[in-house]
Design a protein that fits this description.
The longest helix has 23 residues. The protein is of the alpha+beta class. The chain is elongated and about 90 Å long. The chain has 3 helices and 6 strands; from the N terminus they run ββββββααα. The relative contact order is 0.10. The protein has a 4-stranded antiparallel sheet, with no helix packed on it. The chain has a two-stranded parallel ribbon with strand order 1-6.
């Protein structure tokens, strides 16, 4: 299907602030936000994290007198109900320059890097642990079978002890407890 002049096309939308409304809340000072919650890499497309709903919101009106947050909703798009965030159209106070923001972001990254471990150190072995690990590595299937054969009499004695009925009266109103595991219905 080819496009003709008679077919309607969408017009490009204006890139300026469409409303003169401003939030009644006090202006957001950039210095009060974490440097990682501000994005000024492209000053004409600045964005920051909304303090109320925690979402990244573009700043509109960068070339006009009043810069403010774009009207936005509190929930995820297409999932939550469309509830307008109370910080929509909130003014932005530019109390820091782009080089100051960049320096604050660099300092924050350096501080975070100093807190993270750079290498994983191996756990130190005690002589007893080392001896146990060496013994496990040297065991063979025949050695494991001999160990199991040595334990079998104690296992059989424990099973026989479990099957004995305790002395005393049996409960009058309960079903009989099966003593043999083959009597249990699956």
């Amino acid at each position: 299907m080819s496009i003709t002049a008679a077919m309607p096309t969408a017009k490009e939308r204006l890139r300026r602030t469409r409303t003169k409304r401003v939030s009644h809340l006090p202006a957001i000072k950039l210095s009060s936000l974490l440097p990682s919650h501000i994005d000024l890499r492209d000053p004409l497309k600045a964005s920051l994290v909304c303090g109320d709903c925690g979402t990244w919101v573009p700043v509109t009106g960068m070339q006009s007198k009043t810069q403010k947050l774009v009207p936005h909703h509190t929930g995820k798009a297409g999932v939550d109900a469309a509830i307008r965030c109370r910080s929509s159209n909130r003014r932005i106070e530019w109390d820091m320059t782009i080089p100051e923001w960049h320096q604050a972001l660099t300092d924050a990254v350096k501080e975070a890097d100093s807190r993270t471990a750079t290498t994983v150190l191996p756990k130190a072995f005690s002589p007893a642990t080392d001896q146990t690990l060496r013994a496990r590595a040297q065991r063979t299937p025949a050695g494991r079978l001999a160990d199991w054969t040595a334990v079998l009499p104690r296992v059989a004695a424990t099973d026989a002890h479990r099957q004995t009925v305790p002395a005393g009266d049996a409960p009058a109103q309960s079903p009989a407890v099966p003593l043999d595991k083959h009597q249990i219905n699956h």
